[in-house]
Write a structure and sequence with these properties.
The protein has helices spanning about 30-45, 65-80, 90-100, 105, and strands at about 1-5, 15-20, 25-30, 50-60, 85. It is α/β, with parallel strands linked by helices and about 110 residues long.
């Protein structure tokens, strides 16, 4: 997989990696400080692909802003007729979604 991020060198930054067509992995720490950049990088990377699969197993940490990035990807891609699947959601993100009572929104996008 190759990095989609231009600024993925920081140990604390999240890194979006692209693999085969439509297959991505998200690694590192997804937090408020890098959420906006990652949101935009993902939307650019996913443009025009009918099916996007994102493996989340390599995320080391995330906060509510990170959860917002995932939800925004799901909603924006679906509104454009694209299908997105989130794979291997880390327990930390699942717990935040459960507390916010939005777990169903992520469950619908899980592979």
């Amino acid at each position: 997989m190759k990095s989609v991020n231009a600024t993925a060198s920081s140990r604390t930054a999240a890194c979006l990696l692209s693999g085969e067509q439509g297959h991505y992995a998200l690694s590192g720490a997804l937090h408020f400080a890098n959420a906006r950049d990652l949101l935009n990088q993902g939307l650019r990377a996913f443009a025009g692909q009918p099916v996007i699969e994102i493996d989340l197993s390599a995320l080391t940490s995330a906060d509510s802003a990170g959860l917002a990035v995932l939800l925004a990807w799901v909603e924006r891609l679906r509104s454009k007729g694209q299908r997105v699947q989130l794979g291997r959601l880390p327990p930390q993100l699942a717990a935040i979604a459960r507390v916010c009572d939005i777990e169903q929104m992520l469950t619908a996008a899980q592979a």
